[in-house]
Amino acid sequence: MDRDPARAERDAERASRWLPWSSEALRLAGEAELAQGKRRQARATFVRAVEKDPLDWELWFDLAVASDGRARVRAARRAERLNPLAPQIDEARAQLGLGTGRR
């Protein structure tokens, strides 16, 4: 990501206009929003991203990071179901305060 989160956010929004079918620009925008402390805005962006690409487990974890409460747990579990063997799963679960281990 760009070292300037505000610029990265603007660039990602521009890319999203050029590639409206792509979830990648939304991922970058959401990450930039999180870096700026815009958690609510990032959550909305990640929701739009998973609507475009509901099978992308990393988007679901990004959504979990930007969420809290039950929404966080649901998003993290969805990511785990989509890619249960990803080495990042346990680390991300611990980072989100959801414990470790597979179900």
Annotation keywords:
mainly alpha, 6 helices, Serine Threonine Protein Phosphatase 5, Tetratricopeptide repeat, 0% strand, globular, 103 residues
Q: How would you sum up this structure in a few lines?
A:
The protein is mainly α and 103 residues long. Helices cover 70% and strands 0% of the residues. The chain has a single domain, classed as Serine Threonine Protein Phosphatase 5, Tetratricopeptide repeat (Alpha Horseshoe).
CATH domain topology: Serine Threonine Protein Phosphatase 5, Tetratricopeptide repeat
Number of helical regions: 6
CATH H level: which superfamily?
Tetratricopeptide repeat domain
How can the largest sheet be summarized? none
Strand residue content = under 5%
Mean pLDDT: 84
Known CATH architecture: Alpha Horseshoe
**Highest-level CATH class:** Mainly Alpha
Low-confidence stretches: none
Q: How many strands? A: 0
Instruction: Assign an overall shape.
Output: globular
Order of helices and strands: HHHHHH
Classify the secondary structure makeup into a structural class.
Answer: mainly alpha
In whole angstroms, the N-to-C terminal distance is 33 Å
